[in-house]
Amino acid sequence: MMQIVYEELIVVNLQAENAEDVIRQIGKLMNERGFVKDSYTGAALAREIESPTGLQLQNIGIAMPHAASEHVEKAGVCIAQLASPITFMHMGMPEVEVEAELIFMMAVLDPQAQLDSLQKILTVFSSSDIPIAFKQAGSKEELHQVAVTHLGIA
Amino acid sequence: MNKQVKILCVCGSGTVSSSMVAEKLKEKLGERGFAVSTVEAMPSTVDSELAAGGFSLVACVSPVYQELSIPKVNAVALLTGLGESDVIDECVRILGS
Description:
The complex is a heterodimer of chains A (154) and B (97).
Chain A: E1 10-14, H1 19-32, H2 40-50, E2 54-56, E3 61-63, E4 76-90, E5 93-107, H3 115-126, H4 130-136, H5 140-151
Parallel strand pairs in A: 1-4, 3-5
Antiparallel strand pairs in A: 2-3, 4-5
Helix pairs in contact in A: 1-2, 4-5
Chain B: E1 3-10, H1 16-31, E2 34-41, H2 46-51, E3 57-60, E4 72-74, H3 77-80, H4 84-96
Parallel strand pairs in B: 1-2, 1-3, 3-4
């Protein structure tokens, strides 16, 4: 089991103009923290246009932008609460819009080595209430704690 | 004895979302009596992967627009959990025939 939750990748109240701006801001943060290469943001933006990553969950809209492993330095997930919902297009249904309130931007080095983490993320997405706990966390510390509880190493 | 099936999982980068879909298919179809092996691909590599043969199904979370020689299902529900059982039922119907 690999660690993917880091306090330095937890963001609350992210102000952004649109989906591209979200990806640019978080990509920059992940790059500055050493999780992704300089090429990651551009690759994630290109991927988002070709194959969007918005997901309408039971009680909340989210997005999980990411780029291929070749752009990644270190495994991690940036979890960001948006100050106000941002429109992403839905994964697999590019004509459907999602008003995303949470972003899970992933840096995956080796999917096979990180299957436990990916499964934990899927469990969060499929839950009716856990994503709401991510949304309602009132501070960076609280959001980090929620993330550790649900995505951390046991 | 579980029925062996091979599924091509397609997402934009051919890594992250497709691996999530692959794990879900192995788990859920395993419960329905299938031994699932998967290969992950991106839309641009679907045709070359399929040419290798042996696939029963393509599970996509990224749009695949071209005509395929085998059935294709939209697997996004496996990531959100919404309508997941419908997708699994559809896979079972295709794989069982």
